[in-house]
């Protein structure tokens, strides 16, 4: 009988017992006379790791599905408090592993990438930062609960942030303006709370970095993300390519759009609308969209058919927005159940289909990597993860009629241009975070000023009427800034890779899919740049990589039937 998600058993981990299991493995690493003994110890402690991380993810998902659930709220508090202790166990284990006298034999068995990741991780922890990590965890949970608490009164109804999405792209300009003001109003009412949370996060992260021997949090942030083959210098050079190649194209796309819409004085609340008749909307109920996705994945490949049936049979998707549910969307993985899970907030916009392709790309990859016995190989590093998700969005293009009917071409145009205009925004978020953590003493007002100046650099067409947003407060709603510093540039790096898959797919689908599936199976066994090489993708950091990608996009846009853009 197939076990469904609701029946997955949660039990609070026993930290004392876990500590003893790690201690046992560490003693073997210290005293063993053979590599075989160490391998057996690693295999044994990995069972403990799988269980702890499964329980942590089950708790996180269930508390996100209902942030008012008191039981899982208490359990999430347990993980916020105790995860640093678990990280201490892991730190001690990995410290012994990287200096093992049998390292060459272990690398032959488990791969060099695991040791590269561990060496990065051992720079990110010492026992003396445990209390600081507890504070960091509690602050990120506080941010998540604050955003989930939004109750925005609009058009006679109460909405959370996700449910405000359709109003922000309504064809009626006054509705868009008022919706933007209503959403901004929630953040403005809680401005001091958001500022306090972030200020404390910056301070505690900087304090952790200094204790670990870093000049500031930037180096620590990169090490936390497992970036083993590039530094902030390469990222800065990539951002310069974005300014040179993609900011002008983004501005052209926005100008052409405003001409189509007949808007002579575009404002920030106009940027989400793409067509006079309104943006394309998926047709049907959430259940209809899921059934359409099932048909799509059955026709795309045998591998995707097997994967999506697995997800549906076990009810591993929670897709609809509802009161008390945390915002956003994500994919996670329950190690003990060998199951991906997709979380989202459907709101009747094209973003619902984006989720069914984007998050399914993550889930498909991890489903195909789940046989690795090295836990760290089941997921790649973040920027590589996003290749799988963003490329899947493009592989789904031939099936868009299932979701949008006669609006499918308009969706394709919207999707492609959206990926282009997103990249400058992603680079902006990244440069903002570098500025903040390189200058941790900035005041909340100074941070907002930095953000607004960067908006003018990367999004020169974004003009606010709303005073609160015009002072540089838009970033309050970008959860990655609070929860996972420096993650956001990963989306932009991966997007350039996804564009390359899109260009290949248009020429030779079988070849493009073979390359894509290959790196899904590789999981995290290789670094970001090694995965790019394995797929034949151009290195995004190399000067000139963006130019041919932009040329291919321009060619497609130039040949698009403009009569459909109404």
Topology at a glance:
Elements: H1 15-31, H2 35-65, H3 70-98, H4 103-110, H5 112-122, H6 130-148, E1 152-154, E2 157-159, H7 165-168, H8 173-189, H9 191-211, H10 217-224, H11 232-261, H12 286-300, H13 302-313, E3 317-320, E4 330-334, E5 339-346, H14 351-368, H15 382-395, H16 400-404, H17 408-438, H18 444-458, H19 467-470, H20 479-483, H21 489-507, H22 509-522, H23 528-535, H24 546-558
Parallel strand pairs: 3-5
Antiparallel strand pairs: 1-2, 4-5
Describe the structure.
The protein has helices at 15-31, 35-65, 70-98, 103-110, 112-122, 130-148, 165-168, 173-189, 191-211, 217-224, 232-261, 286-300, 302-313, 351-368, 382-395, 400-404, 408-438, 444-458, 467-470, 479-483, 489-507, 509-522, 528-535, 546-558, and strands at 152-154, 157-159, 317-320, 330-334, 339-346. The protein is mainly α and 566 residues long. The protein has a three-stranded mixed β-sheet, sandwiched between helices. Strand 4 and strand 5 (339-346) form a beta hairpin. Helix 1 packs antiparallel against helix 2 (35-65) and helix 11 (232-261) crosses helix 17 (408-438). The longest helix has 31 residues, at 35-65. It is globular.
